[in-house]
Design goal:
The structure is a homodimer.
Chain A (H helix, E strand, L loop, with lengths): L3 E7 L7 H14 L3 E7 L3 H5 L3 E3 L5 H8 L15 H13 L2 E8 L1 H16 L5 E6 L15 H21 L3 E6 L6 H4 L14 E3 L7 H15 L2 E6 L29 H13 L6 E5 L3 H4 L6 H21 L3 E10 L2 E8 L25 H11 L10
Parallel strand pairs in A: 1-2, 1-4, 4-5, 5-10, 6-8, 6-9, 7-8
Antiparallel strand pairs in A: 2-3, 10-11
Helix pairs in contact in A: 1-3, 1-11, 4-5, 8-9
């Protein structure tokens, strides 16, 4: 029976509920005899390589519960796709500290990291169990029905569009809102939940899964303005042209060598300029880029998301301690009405590396909206939304 | 005793609670014998000139209460600084429809409009009472302690910075957040409420009331990065250089002929570029422009703000019906701890036209932060904020 210390870390972009997973795992670990010490790695792999840990056995439950409802990543996060050398260093540190359990909360890159280290342990016959705990607002992990962190960000997006559509109705014009999601349109698509009555926006939704055609975009917006006297547009930051190139970026690259999409207004401003070309002079056109608020706004949390994020943390630890088997925790949707779900473990290799994106059945034929199937999928995750009152 | 129909309209930028004022006024008017009909003007003055009204005596209280908690402006809004011709047209419509009471919910321009029409009525001996009901997220009206709409937007800004600061702590770098407020820094200054512990951001706050010096800005950011390894910056969209010129805009002008500040990422991207010049190559610098979310995000509402917005609507109608006297409703702060307030009526001329801005005592000497006096002023308006949990 596996027994020893555990390390837990957080990786990648923050979410509103990633700390729920952390606290779920820590509280579960405190109950497990197999787990002797609980080390929190500061800034994920970076902290492990630097042996920069905090002891997670000493905090009061009250403090941990405060952490659980706080967005971002309480241990600190890191953007690091480790190479073999980094993984070897991590494994060395694990051996040095008698670490037998490793829990890594993150997306597909984190699953890949966990996978590599698990393979190293296996090849050295080092008794070790590693679990990937899923997290991403992008909702792009394979196998799982959906990813913890997504539904809270989706709730923020839905609420933002609900309010912004009322704003646009009060002072007409074209409003373009740029939503996070480099390769997957799930979060942008959640904007459709803002619609409560005929004529409500968003009137157009553009996702990275479909080719963004500038001429079609201009025609689409002009047609909506003709129909409604206004137009609210949801656009993913990751939209690409027929050659797969981004429509506009700041030109900066992030630490993964990817073009920087978030944290700049470049795309919104470019799209505004295009819309102005398509409309009569003086048309009111505005663009907002929701930016980091989507992933770390306090108090805007989906109840389902908070519960599931907590549960996958707990489940990972309980599974590891009782089964000693590597894997990634996944969510199975048992029913949408009423919404119920269960958890299971899938091999790391099924989640690692490659991500997924919106199914074709969730996107309309024209590629400028979502389908009812999408709404049926996403609505129960996001939860009830306030009803917008109206007079005109 | 004045008796006849009333018209109510909404003007200017939406807020989260402007519909509270509308519903407060409508429900109060339904109780007043002096008020025979209640006409809602669609899109403010534009609707009055077009005689485009809706009857506000027929909706259920339930429907009105839904409207009250919905952001934006349920009657539609308008950006129109009317000239004499427009005011004459409005007055003509009022006479035609036996309108004896006019309630205009808006900022200083709306107070000015109400003032002009009141003067017209006086000069023609037309028995008439007009009340301005204050509303602006900018908090820049004279006489009143603060403006309905401000505290809810301030709450959004405070929460956004709380979450974004945790995000920045998890993944270090420089983060610049651009906040609304063309000439007044109140909303940007509310970001200071996000600080709960030593080292919390925002680490720097720049307001339109002080000259923005690019060299000083770069030095300030570099010093904060040196100290904290990161830096979160709050910047008003209205910051200006020593000549009073905006630091960066999209070059577009709005319907008032003002340079467009909101609905573009131009300033944030410009400031990002400046910060990159001040830091070592490869520094992680991001900018978000909060945009319209600040003023119309559903569910993020200050309790004090919602109550006061409702109250000023009710107060305006009751005052008009009982006193028949023109004016603008203002809020008097009776006490900050515990927070209590009362209402009074101030002459339209004291609120109309000119706006106000942050007092000097609210801004630190260096012009890159706020003072304790500011926090004492703003905290009770925004209300309790969730405590951010932390581990490192």
């Amino acid at each position: 029976m596996l027994k020893g210390n555990m390390v837990i870390g957080q990786s990648g972009g923050p979410t509103a509920v990633i700390n729920q997973s952390l606290v779920g795992a820590v509280l579960a670990a405190r109950e497990q005899e197999a787990i002797t010490g609980i080390l929190g790695a500061k800034h994920g792999l970076a902290g492990i390589m630097a042996e920069d840990f905090i002891d997670l056995t000493t905090q009061s439950v009250e403090q941990l519960e405060e952490v659980a409802t706080t967005p971002a990543a309480a241990l600190g996060s890191v953007r690091l796709k480790p190479g073999k050398a980094e993984c070897e260093k991590v494994f060395e540190v694990f051996k040095k500290h008698d670490v037998r359990f490793f829990f890594y909360i993150g997306g597909n890159d984190s699953a890949e990291t966990a996978h590599i280290i698990a393979e190293m342990a296996k090849s050295e016959n080092y008794d070790f169990c590693t679990m990937h705990i899923p997290k991403t607002i992008d909702n792009d992990l394979r196998v799982t029905d959906h990813c913890p962190g997504f539904a809270s960000a989706a709730r923020f997006v839905a609420l933002a569009f609900m309010g912004d559509d009322r704003d646009n109705k009060a002072l007409s014009g074209v409003k373009i809102n740029v939503v996070m999601g480099r390769d997957a349109g799930f979060l942008t698509a959640a904007s459709a939940l803002a619609r409560q009555a005929d004529g409500d926006g968003p009137h157009l939704i553009y996702l990275p899964e479909t080719t963004f055609n500038v001429a079609q975009f201009k025609a689409d917006v002009a047609a909506q303005v003709e129909k409604h006297g206004r137009c609210v547009v949801a656009v993913s930051e990751g939209i690409v042209d027929a050659d797969g190139h981004p429509i506009a970026t700041s030109g900066e690259k992030d630490s993964h060598g990817n073009l920087q999409l978030s944290g700049t207004g470049a795309l919104g401003d470019t799209l505004s300029a295009l819309v102005k070309e398509a409309l009569p002079a003086g048309a009111r056109v505005r663009a907002d880029t929701f930016g980091y608020l989507q992933r770390s706004f306090p108090t805007i949390v989906s109840d389902v998301d908070a519960k599931e994020a907590r549960d996958v943390g707990t489940y990972a630890v309980d599974h590891a301690a009782s089964m000693g088997e590597n894997g990634s925790v996944a969510i199975k949707r048992e029913s949408s009405k009423p919404y119920t779900s269960s958890y299971f473990v899938t091999p790391l290799s099924t989640v690692a590396r490659e991500a997924t994106s919106m199914k074709a059945e969730y996107i309309n034929e024209k590629g400028n909206d979502v389908t009812q199937a999408w709404l049926d999928y996403v609505a129960p995750l996001v939860g009830d939304l306030p009803k917008m009152g109206r007079l005109i």
